[in-house]
Amino acid sequence: MSDEQEIHLSKRQRKEEKDKNNYYLNKNLKANNKYESSKNKNKIINGSKNGEKISKEHEVYLKKVISTKRRIVVTRVLILAVFIALWQIAASFKWIDPFLTSSPSRVIKSFISLYEDGNLFKHIGITCYETILGFSLGTILGALIAIILWSFPFLSKILDPYLVVLNALPKVALAPIIIFWIGNGMSAIIVIALLISVVTTVISVLTGFNEIDTEKIMLMNTFRASKVQILRYLIFPYSIPIFISALKINVGLSWVGVIMGEFLVAKNGLGFLIVYGGQVAQLDMVMMSIVILSAIAFIMYEIVAFVEKKLIKDKN
Length: 316
Fold this sequence. Notes:
Elements: H1 3-50, H2 56-92, H3 98-101, H4 104-117, H5 120-151, H6 153-168, H7 175-182, H8 186-210, H9 214-222, H10 227-238, H11 240-264, H12 270-279, H13 283-315
Helix pairs in contact: 4-13, 5-6, 5-8, 5-11, 5-12, 6-8, 7-8, 8-11, 11-12, 11-13, 12-13
């Protein structure tokens, strides 16, 4: 083999070796980049799932939200604590008449006395049962009536003025009639609470249904969707906030209906305790019943608020 051939062969070998090295180098670089990209992606995913810090801005935002919620809760508790303390101090120093306004200590004594008699939870249970039943039946019945009226617009237009009149009518005016028709018992109280809830639910839910964008309904009609499908996939999801608002209103109205009914006909329940306490001049019992009513109504409202958060979260 000549010298020229040897030189040419060595150059060729060096070139092939260089190309081979470049090939493996590029391959390693690509593998490296792929690994880093996958690693960063996993960091982001794991960070979002496990609650790790993603960015300083996000961390600051989360801290601000948590701090705001804590301040709200602390402020609420402080306002209640200050009110109770001032009430007790004013009654103790006779700045106010304890006989007329009672005091936290006297309310607690009345609570303990009624508890020891074994009647406290019986009265609370009866009132809660009447309220929950009236609230539930009124809300369900009102929602069903709203669906029927939405499905038949002609019927809705006919009944619209009557719904307005029923909503404006003081329900106290109907209570004696309902008691006369149904009887002097728990059924009359539940019906009063139901009637108060049902009218509000019908108006609120029907208004929510009618506020849905008509173009979306027309779009579903072009795909020949049935009314059931439109209700299920369009009307119901978009009306969740309206329905929850109706629930929040009904919580308070149901308590009003039940207590009003217990004022008139009941022989048990917190409304009965309020009336009885007023008749025998035991205002400590009256204030105790009002405090218990306030606490239970607050708990019911918080339950509805919790359901609202869950529904909105599932919707999102």
